[in-house]
Specification:
binds flavin-adenine dinucleotide, 416 residues, 11 helices, 32% helix, 5-stranded parallel beta sheet, alpha/beta
Length: 416
């Protein structure tokens, strides 16, 4: 068969789900077009390291053309898909159309501010490289400004850093920021007192990493407090004007920094597709990950809504996205040879969250760990999972350096 006659698989999104499926289809007789608005795959779990000046973006992102340069059945096209015609089987991007035989909707997610425009406009978020670099620049600028500010009230607001959301991202960001202050900045801003700084973690509920088992929630709280993070429970943010935030109980906190990590929803395009969406705007998928009424379309990763055996939505995690990428690739092979589609069952690999140096929590093989052992597992796993040998090596060396010399390398303010 000539290559042009092979079934055409279009994958929108080169995140964990799309990347996995594309690689898995390497030796399958299909033509693949991988479309992403960015020309790189981003390892989002380490974005907070860019935000706290530990790593540079190129250490957690890898060019797609490099990843796929030896995969002959794949073409990469940079561009943002703006619409999909599910009846005529084509997607629109860059003013042109691409027809498909099979379509993978793997567009991931974006920050959910739950309609609170003031927080979106005046706060910071952590979702992509740009937002992580924005946080880094902002944090470092606050230190510069505070170091020349004589008014103690103003200095206090500059040195108060509020992180909203007690999930894994909020926990790791607040822990890492507290370490940046206590390990690095105190050496370089001799006129600032560490005790003048406040890292405050706001959680609307009554526990950190609420979906984890009780012993890990308690261990997390203990470890976060040990890093000097001030944790506030039942603290529901209602407003923020860039200088002052307000909680639902009327309490106000003056802070020039607010990092919102309290919500994720499916990427914008999912709301414009005219398909059924469920919680957080995720596209409802069949158990085989096919779109109801469109068996040639698969929804996967953060953009897809599927429930586990207990009727709970599957979490928006890289582990879910990777496993779904594998199953969708398998289902495309099955569709081509006319065999039955395989339903998706999530195999929970365990839980892991880091708080900072020597401090993490984990539940693996039915056993709960916290502290140094969990942290070492976290470090090893994250180095292993970063795409590209060079990145793995560089991140390993940087982390070892930071570990022994208490130094975050990337303390550069790069743009206004
Ligand atoms: C700060 C942070 C920390 C996290 N930490 C962890 C963790 O520790 N462990 C864990 O398991 N998970 C973690 N996650 C979640 C994990 O990153 C996601 O679950 C995972 O990335 C989902 O994979 P995906 O392939 O569905 O989407 P993504 O990885 O988000 O990829 C989607 C891709 O689609 C592209 N795209 C979107 N819209 C379009 C369009 N219209 N046209 C073209 N391209 C488009 C995007 O550019 C992107 O490359 C974290 C997420 C964040 C933000």
């Amino acid at each position: 068969m000539n290559a042009k006659q092979l079934p055409h698989v279009v994958i929108i999104g080169a995140g964990f789900a799309g990347l996995t499926a594309a690689k898995k289809l390497r030796n399958v007789p299909v033509r693949i077009t991988l479309v992403d608005k960015n020309n790189y795959h981003l390892f989002q779990p380490l974005l907070y390291q860019v935000a706290i000046a530990g790593l540079v973006p190129s250490q957690i992102a890898y060019p797609l053309r490099t990843i796929f340069r030896n995969q002959k059945n794949l073409t990469y096209q940079m561009g943002e898909v703006t619409s999909i015609d599910f009846d005529a089987h084509y997607v629109k991007l860059n003013g042109s159309v691409i027809a498909y035989d099979y379509l993978l909707l793997a567009v991931g997610g974006e920050t959910n501010f739950f309609g609170m425009d003031a927080i979106r406009e005046n706060g910071l978020q952590l979702k992509d490289i740009e937002s992580a670099v924005d946080i880094r620049n902002h944090l470092l600028k606050m230190f510069e400004q505070a170091s020349r500010e004589a008014d103690p009230e103003k200095r206090k607001a500059m040195l108060t850093f509020v992180i909203v959301g007690g999930g894994p991202t909020g926990v790791e960001t607040s822990g890492a920021l507290a370490e940046l202050i206590s390990h690095v900045l105190k050496k370089e801003y001799p006129n600032l007192e560490v005790k003048e700084t406040h890292v405050i973690l706001l959680e609307a509920g009554d526990a950190l990493i609420a979906s984890y088992p009780d012993e890990l929630r308690k261990a997390t709280l203990r470890l976060v407090k040990k890093k000097n993070v001030e944790v506030m429970f039942d603290a529901k943010l209602t407003d923020y004007n860039g200088q002052r935030l307000t909680l639902s109980n009327g309490m106000e906190i003056k802070a020039n920094t607010l990092i919102w990590t309290a919500g994720v929803k499916a990427a914008g395009i999912t709301s414009r597709l005219g398909v059924q969406v469920a919680g957080s705007g995720r596209v409802r998928a069949e158990s085989t990950l096919q779109l109801p009424g469109h068996p040639e379309v698969y929804a996967l990763g953060d953009a897809a809504y599927l429930e586990n055996g207990n009727g709970q939505p599957l979490p928006m995690l890289s582990t879910v996205a990777i496993q779904q990428g594998n199953v969708v690739a398998e289902n495309i092979k099955r569709a081509i040879r006319g065999s039955e589609q395989k339903p998706f069952h999530y195999k929970d690999p365990g839980l892991l969250a880091t708080i900072g140096r020597n401090a993490a929590v984990a539940r693996l093989w039915g056993i709960s760990f916290s502290g140094l052992i969990a942290w070492l597992i976290w470090v090893a796993l994250h180095i292993y999972r970063i795409v590209g040998f060079r990145n793995r090596l560089v991140v390993f060396i940087i982390w070892a350096w930071e570990y022994f010399f208490y130094d975050n390398q990337v303390r550069l303010i790069t743009r206004e």
